[in-house]
Amino acid sequence: MSDVRHVLVLPDRDAAEEVAAELADRFGVAEEPQLVRDALAGEDDAEDAQWLVVVEDAAGLLDPAALDAFAEEYEGWLEKP
Question: How far apart are alpha carbons 17 and 81 in whole angstroms?
Answer without folding.
Answer: 22
